[in-house]
Amino acid sequence: MIHKRTLGVCYYPEHWPEAIWAEDARRMAETGITFVRIGEFAWSRMEPKPGTYDWGWLDRAIETLGAAGLKVVLGTPTATPPRWMADTLPDMFAVDKQGRPRGFGSRRHYDFSHRGYRVECARIVTAMAERYGVNPHLGAWQTDNEYACHDTTLSYSPAALSAFREWLAQKYQSPQALNRAWGNVFWSMDYDSFDQIGLPNLTVTEPNPAHTMDFRHFASDEVVSFNRLQVEIIRQHSAAPIAHNYMGRVTSFDHFKTGADLDIASWDSYPLGFLSDRLDATPDHKARFLRQGDPDNQAFHHDLYRAVGRGRWWVMEQQPGPVNWAPWNADPLPGMARLWAWEAFAHGAETVSYFRWRQAPFAQEQMHAGLLRPDSVSAPALGEAAQVARELAAMPDAGTGAAPVALVFDYASAWAWETQPQGRDFDYFLLVTSVYRGLRALGLNVDILPPDSADLSAYKVVLIPGVATLSAPLLDALARYKGQALIGPRTNAKTAEFAIPVPLPPNLPGLSATVARVESLQPGIEVPLQGGGAIRRWHEVLEGDAEVALTTADGTPAALRAGAITYIGGWLDETALGHLLRATCAAASVAVTEMPAGLRRRDTATHRFLFNYNPGPVTFDGVTIPPAGVHWQAL
Ligand code: GAL
Q1: Of 476, 405, 365, 414, which is closest to residue 148 (Cα–Cα)?
Q2: Does the domain spanning 6-152+223-394 belong to CATH 3.20.20.80?
Q3: With 463 labelled, which of 2, 28, 437, 564 sits at a CA distance of 20 to 30 A?
Q4: Predicted TM-score of the model (pTM)
Q5: From the CA of 152, how far away is ligand 1's center (Å)?
Q6: Where are the domain boundaries for CATH 3.20.20.80 in the chain?
Q7: Is the CATH number of domain 405-587 3.40.50.2000?
Q8: Nearest CA to ligand 1 atom 9
Q9: Which atom of ligand 1 has the smallest separation from the CA of 146?
C-alpha cells in the first residue's frame, strides 16, 4: 500500500489564550506539520451547560489552523464527560472490582454499558458531526480517547450487570444451555434464570473461569458497540476517515473488532514511559535503553496496529520528551524523537503525531514535555520533528514492506490466561512478544495476523503461540498450509466454552500429538533441552507418533512435527527459541541476519532502514551508526 507520510501534533486550543493560536499555527506549519489533533477533551467547553453549546471558539480554532494550511483531526470528547452530567446521570460511573464507583475529577469516568451515557454521547457526536463533517479543514476524526486507559474496560456496575444478562440470554438462549457450557454442575452453581446471574466479582473464591471469560467477551463487545455508535453517526455527516488512538500493551478489548468499524488504527507511543512502566525486562536492560526505549516494543505495536487498521495506521501520540506518568521519567537521548518517528514510518505509518504541542504548566500533565516548553521556547524535540519533516519532503511516499513471517495475535487469549494462568507468570503478551523479539533479532519483517485469518499462503513461516482456541478459519488455513507453522505452547488448549477439549489438545490437522499433562515452573526452574537452551515457565508432556523436533535433556519430546506443522510443548527461552527460529527459517528458505544487540532493521517496499537503540555507536554492514541514529538505503 503506497501512501504519503506526514507529521502531526496534538493541540489543545482551549488551554491557551486565543491571541496565540495564530502564532502556534504558523510555527506548526513552519515545522512541517500537516495534521493537528484537537478537541478530544473539550466537552465542558463545547457544552458548558446541558444542551447549551458553544462552538464559536472551536470554529475559530479550526479556521486559524486551516488558514495556516493545517488539517484538523477532530476528537469526540466522550472520554471526559463534564461535571454537570454526574448530576443528571449519577450512576454513569464505572464500578471497580471491589464494587466501588469511580469518581469525578480526572477522565474516563464513564461506564461503557450505561445506556443513558450512550444517549449523551450520541447527542454530542451528532452535534459535532453536523457542524464539522464537511469542514474543508477537517482531515480525520478520532473517536473518544484511548479506550481502556486507566483500567476502564471492565465495570462491575448495575448497568454492566443488566447488559451482561441480556448478552448471555442472546448467546445461550436458555439457562440450561449456559449451565452446560459453563459446567455449573460443579459446586452447585446451576442457574434457573438469566436474572440470577451476577458479575464475576466479590465471589468467595475464584468464579467459574467460563463465567469470567464470557464477562470478558461481553465487556469487549461493549467497547466495540460504544465505538460503533459514534462511527455510525459520524459517517452520516462526514466522509473523512475515522480513527481511534489505541495504547501500548493494552489487551482488555478486541482491537480487531473495533478496528473493523474504523478506517485507521492509531496508537500512542511512549517508548521511555513503557520501558519504565510496563516492560518485563532486567534492570540492566532498562538501564541500557533508559533514554532510547526498548528496541522491539514500539515495532511490535506498529505491526500489531497495522493489522488492526487493515493496512492504514498512524501514531497519534508520539513521546517528545519526558512523560509524567511512569515510575521514573527519563529525558530521551538527542535524536530519539526523530528515530521513533522513522521507525514508525518504516513499519508503514502514514502519520506520526507528537503529543503535545506545548507543555501545559497546569493540572495533571504539567510535568509532561511538549514540542514547546511552557514558555513557548522550543523544546529539543521540535528541531527533531522539523528534521523529520525535511527528510520526509525528500522521501514522501512509502510502501509497507512485505514480511516472510507472520505471528498470530489474539486478544481473547490474553483474557484466557489472565483468567486461568495456572502459573503466576504465564503472560500471553509476554509470550507473543518474546517470539516477536526472536524474529527481530534475526532481522526479519513480521506481519501480525488476527486469530480468524483464513489464508496463510503469503507467509513462509507462521507462529501461533498461546492461542487458547484456534478458530475454524485458522484451522482450515493450517490444513492447507505449505510453509512452516510453529504452534504452541498452550495453543488450542481450550474449547470455545473454556473447557479442556477431549480428545486432548492440541488437535492440529495431520499431527499425531497429545498434551498428556502440563506443569508451570517458578522463576529459576528450567527444563534443559538437547542442543542448548531450556523450557521455562510452562512445560507440557507430549505423547504421539509424530516426528520429534525438539528433545529435553532427559530424552522426552519437547516439540512434535508432521509436514508443515510443529507443535512446541513449552515456553522456550531466548537460546532455544533462537535455535528453533533459525532452523525453521532455513527449512522455509527465509534468509536471516544476526542483528547486533540494540540494532534493528526494517525493510519498506523501497528502502532498508537500520535503527540504533544503543547508547553508543554500532558498525554493521560497513556502516557506523551513531546512538539514536537512523540509516537507510534504497533496496
Ligand atoms: C495518553 C493520553 C493523552 C495524554 C498522554 C500523556 O495516554 O491519550 O491524553 O494523557 O497519554 O502521555
Answers
A1: 414
A2: yes
A3: 2
A4: 0.98
A5: 15
A6: 6-152+223-394
A7: no
A8: 145
A9: 8
